[in-house]
């Protein structure tokens, strides 16, 4: 690691002030990506601003049909929360599938979406559920938040404070885990809202995206969706690496979509 100054602010305002005063400072939440990056000397921040103990950034609250989760809430708490499990079971299930037990104890919701790793799980839930990302200065709709690989609509020094999820009618998340990291080789999150169906795919491309063709699928409640009824995902633009080819990722996406739709049908029965 390169030398840096560690700062532990007492509130969000102080944290924002530190980040604005030091352009090379980086916020630290769970540190699941940042700490290994520092270890391998791939980043050289002047300061690390610890957000993990700031009041108001942790916890789960359900009010007026909106599930609000603090940005510093660890994955394990989301997975174990009876409030999340009752309100959006698919979100609790997703949190329980992230990485391993150690990652789930340290990693946070806000850190995951602010980092926007192409294979992270949470971005698919935020996008499919039409959530709102709350920061220290504004509210950002999910459709506008994720802008590219490891990039978001966050401005320099802007801090995610919470994510607000409107309750869907039903939702399901299916993913194919990378055997070593637990990241999503491909993950598909499907949510039925009162106005529309939203389908988000993670792991397959450089950035999470909505699968618009899949959103038009309306399987009958009387039977499982047939393979012929599901739209194929084009492999063009999908990730090509040692783990999988674009064609294989496209195949996985269609398979996981079918499984998610079967889960939706079961939950509606």
From TrEMBL:
Gene3D superfamilies: 3.30.465.10, CO dehydrogenase flavoprotein, C-terminal domain, Uridine Diphospho-n-acetylenolpyruvylglucosamine Reductase, domain 2. The keyword Hydrolase does not apply. GO terms for molecular function: FAD binding; oxidoreductase activity. InterPro entries: CO_DH_flav_C, CO_DH_flav_C_dom_sf, Diverse_Substr_Oxidored, FAD-bd_PCMH, FAD-bd_PCMH-like_sf, FAD-bd_PCMH_sub1, FAD-bd_PCMH_sub2, Mopterin_DH_FAD-bd. Coiled coil: none annotated. It comes from the Bacteria. Keywords: FAD, Flavoprotein, Oxidoreductase. Residues 1-170 form the FAD-binding PCMH-type domain. This is Xanthine dehydrogenase family protein subunit M.
């Amino acid at each position: 690691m390169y030398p840096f100054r560690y700062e532990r602010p007492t509130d969000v305002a102080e944290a924002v002030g530190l980040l604005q005063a030091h352009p090379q400072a980086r916020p630290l939440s769970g540190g699941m990506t940042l700490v290994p990056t520092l270890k391998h000397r791939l980043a050289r921040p002047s300061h690390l601003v610890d957000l993990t103990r700031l009041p108001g950034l942790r916890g789960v609250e359900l009010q007026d049909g909106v599930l609000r989760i603090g940005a510093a809430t660890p994955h394990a708490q989301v997975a174990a929360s009876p409030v999340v499990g009752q309100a959006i079971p698919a979100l609790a299930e997703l949190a329980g599938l992230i990485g391993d037990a150690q990652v789930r104890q340290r990693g946070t919701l806000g850190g995951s979406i602010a980092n926007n790793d192409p294979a992270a799980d949470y971005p698919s839930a935020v996008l499919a559920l039409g959530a709102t990302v709350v920061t220290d200065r504004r509210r950002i709709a999910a459709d506008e938040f994720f802008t590219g690989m490891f990039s978001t609509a966050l401005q320099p020094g802007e801090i995610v404070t919470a994510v607000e999820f409107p309750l869907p009618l039903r939702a399901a998340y299916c993913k194919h885990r990378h055997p070593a990291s637990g990241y999503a080789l491909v993950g598909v999150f499907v949510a039925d809202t009162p106005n529309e169906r939203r389908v988000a795919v993670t792991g397959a491309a450089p950035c999470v995206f909505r699968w618009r063709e899949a959103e038009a699928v309306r399987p009958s409640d009387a039977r499982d969706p047939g393979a012929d009824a599901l739209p194929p995902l084009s492999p063009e633009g999908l990730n090509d690496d040692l783990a999988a080819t674009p064609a294989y990722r496209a195949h996985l996406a269609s398979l996981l979509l079918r499984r998610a739709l079967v889960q939706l049908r079961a939950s509606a029965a």
